Amino acid sequence: MLPITKRKKRLICAGAAAAALLGLAAGLDSRLTVPHYQIESEKLSGAVRVALITDLHCCDYGQGQRDLLDAVAAENPDLVLLGGDIVDDDPSLPVENAYTVVKALAEQYPTYYVTGNHEFWSGQVEEIKENMTACGAAVLAGAWEDVTINGQNLRICGVDDPAVGTLEWKTQLTRVGEAADGSRFTILVTHRPERVEEYIQYNFDLTVAGHAHGGQWRLPGLINGLLAPNQGLFPKYAGGLYDLNGQTMVVSRGLARESTRIPRFFNRPELVVLELGPEAGV
To answer: Given pLDDT bands bounded at 50, 70 and 90, which one contains residue 261?
Structure first.
């Protein structure tokens, strides 16, 4: 075997360094991505497109929040679900970023909002709810609304974040759970994905959540998430679509960027699009 010359060693080292830098750049890519999930149900005879937005945390998406709003417009959803932590508790983050998004969306689409833990941690959750209502969003806190879209009858249920208090949260979940009576396709909007054992006690066709931030660090194909609040290391429900014994849950990896102390890694912020429709062959 021929000895490796100093020049070759330098080239190998330079190549390895370049590959590492490219990998780091790819891992730290924080551009918005838009995953789509197909969800079929015998309760549906036509298509409904839903945009799911979670964990904005007042983050910046361009002048007038156009990067995010234009991405939503490009998907042309029939309704929008806001799964909590749209507002952050850090006063250094401009709250206008959150309300600009909500107001613009509510002017265009039926928009439904539930709280996350950071809205409660702000100490201003009631004011935030009032502002969401003023922006045009329906605030769901142990409540539901029936809506007919494209001839499809939907029931949109929502609960506050558990930071509201254990007893009140369970009361809210019971109330909306009893409304999931099988008469129409029913969606639960909640912030916390880790409470699946309580959600599946009821007949929700679809549960949507956020909170986990995609586990913050990912290795696609190997690790779906490293660490998530209230789930710890290697969270089971970091992001994606989950089959819960016949029910479906979709967890958004959220939109938080500059609000997090640790940067996202191979975990781009996302606007989730849910394609609801009839079962194949129907």
So the answer is: confident
State the virtual CA torsion across 144, 202, 186, 46 in degrees, nearest 10: -170
Read off the DSSP letter of residue 246: T
| Long-range interactions of 104-109: CB distance < 8 A, separation 24+ | 104/65, 104/69, 105/53, 105/69, 105/72, 105/80, 105/137, 106/80, 106/135, 106/136, 106/137, 107/136, 108/73, 109/51, 109/77, 109/78, 109/79, 109/80
Tell me, what's the pLDDT at 26?
58
What is the rounded distance in angstroms from the CA atom of residue 79 to the CA atom of residue 77? 5
CB 112 within 8 A of CB 138: yes
What predicted TM-score, i.e. pTM, was given to this entire model?
0.90
| pLDDT mean over 241-251 | 94
What is the rounded CA–CA span in Å between residue 79 and residue 134?
18
* 254 phi/psi in degrees, rounded to 5: 80, 180
What pLDDT digit, counting tens, does each position of 157-196 carry? Answer: 999 999 999 999 999 999 999 999 888 999 999 999 999 9
> What does each C-alpha distance from 143 to 24, 53, 56, 138, 140 come to in angstroms?
44, 19, 23, 10, 5
| Sign of torsion over alpha carbons 278, 274, 188, 236 | positive
Query: What size, in residues, is the chain?
Result: 282
d(CA 29, CA 239): 17
